[in-house]
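U., I forgot to send this yesterday:
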Amino acid sequence: MNQAIRSLRAPAVLALAGLLGACAYMPAGPSVMALPGTGKSFDQFRVDDANCRQYAFQQSGGVSAGQASTASALGSAAVGTALGAAAGAAFNGGTGAA
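Result:
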């Protein structure tokens, strides 16, 4: 019995880590307010802001927040399906409802 619990420890930890990772999301935009620097015009600030956002978009793999959200939802659904199938097989769910 003790050996069975030890053999399930690693998969349980990996499953928990996967489920927690699925809860992460990419923010839709900056979370800190940025203001124009001293001596900079508002037009220059807008150019700098656009360049900064473009750089962040490229560094994140060119994935927008909406695309990341969709991918996360699909990944969560796939993980849930796989875990449900594994749990059903583990608890002898293949015998049917009858």
